[in-house]
Design brief:
By secondary structure, the chain is an alpha/beta fold. The chain is about 35% helix and about 20% strand. The protein is globular.
């Protein structure tokens, strides 16, 4: 493993800009300067396109206008599959930032759809601190219910019985909790979750881990101080050992009783401050008797996969495709 991540200049600049804007937008009183965020995000919003772009067409659908809950679907125009699995994706951003129509997420979801040969549903859930816990989990679960109940939304060749859930950073956290809630529910008739892909999920706890301390001056995106601010934005009346934050900690749910919890992939980057929490998540799933696979990228930083110029980004998408191919139900 290198002593610091090797990134191209353009990639390092992108990380610097993201971190600078995020830091400037977080106020000391726990609120977010949405005007500043929208100012910079306005030039990076990608509209949906019915005309295929890079082999994928997109469309937006509203689930609940009152809470501005919507999702974007990505449909590949060419595929070697007769029926396409559905990949429900939750974006990152520390529960506080970003959206499904942001250029980086629109671009990576197009790659998912094309390279994996799947229909991607990218969820635009509500953000903290304006919307506290459990709003994000409620939104994710309600999208699953919407897809289950509405057969007129996805293309005819969508195989909703082969649904996979994925998310990065905060989206990985949302993905886990939404899948757990799905496994505890009996209200679904068509949608079945066959797998979970947690890409560098955002977890934490009261303890300061070795990676949080050692990578404090190396991580190009995440810092303990900023992570603490985001946890307070999500859960202002709880400490960081809340089950939603420290998913494998002292207040962890007993998922060993959930026989239908799906096979899971946990992705870890060597230069990610959060990697010790992610590894604990992997170990907790394994100790709970679940099928879980660990993908480690020793020289990668947080959110590396959204940058197509990084070789490991393509490697991860291939690994995702292999996992989905192996766990598609033939029934």
């Amino acid at each position: 493993m290198e002593k610091k991540p090797r990134l191209r200049a353009v990639t390092r600049v992108s990380y610097f800009v993201c971190r600078t804007i995020a830091t400037a937008a977080c106020r000391r009183d726990g609120t977010v300067n949405r005007g500043l965020i929208h100012f910079f995000a306005s030039c990076m919003i990608t509209p949906p396109s019915a005309t295929p772009r890079k082999g994928v067409r997109t469309a937006d659908f509203t689930v609940d206008a009152t809470r501005k809950l919507w999702f974007r679907i990505f449909v590949p125009t060419a595929s070697d599959r007769e029926h396409l699995p559905v990949l429900v994706f939750f974006h990152g951003g520390g529960f506080v930032y970003l959206s499904a129509d942001l250029k980086h997420y629109d671009r990576v979801c197009r790659r998912f759809a094309r390279k994996i040969s799947a229909i991607v549903v990218s969820v635009n859930y509500r953000l903290a601190p304006e919307n506290r816990y459990p709003a994000q989990y409620d939104d994710g679960f309600d999208v699953l219910k919407f897809l289950d109940e509405r057969s007129d939304i996805l293309p005819e060749n969508a195989d909703i019985g082969n649904c996979f859930v994925a998310g990065d950073s905060a989206g990985g956290n949302v993905g886990h909790h939404v899948v757990k809630r799905f496994c505890e529910s009996s209200g679904f008739s068509r949608l079945q979750i066959q797998g979970l892909i947690a890409i560098q999920p955002f977890f934490g706890g009261q303890e300061r881990t070795k990676s949080e301390i050692e990578l404090a001056k190396v991580d190009v995106l995440v810092s303990m101080e900023k992570a603490d601010w985001m946890w307070r934005a999500l859960l202002p009346d709880s400490d960081r050992d809340h089950e939603s934050i420290n998913v494998s900690g002292p207040r962890a749910a007993d998922i060993s009783r959930l026989s239908n919890f799906p096979p899971t992939v946990v992705v870890i980057g060597g230069f990610d401050t959060l990697k010790d929490w992610q590894r604990r998540y992997y170990e907790w799933l394994k100790d709970s008797g679940k099928e879980v696979h660990l993908l480690e990228y020793p020289n990668m930083v947080h959110a590396f996969y959204v940058f197509p110029e990084i070789v490991e980004s393509s490697q991860l998408i291939k690994e995702m495709k292999d996992f989905i191919d192996q766990h598609i139900s033939k029934v």
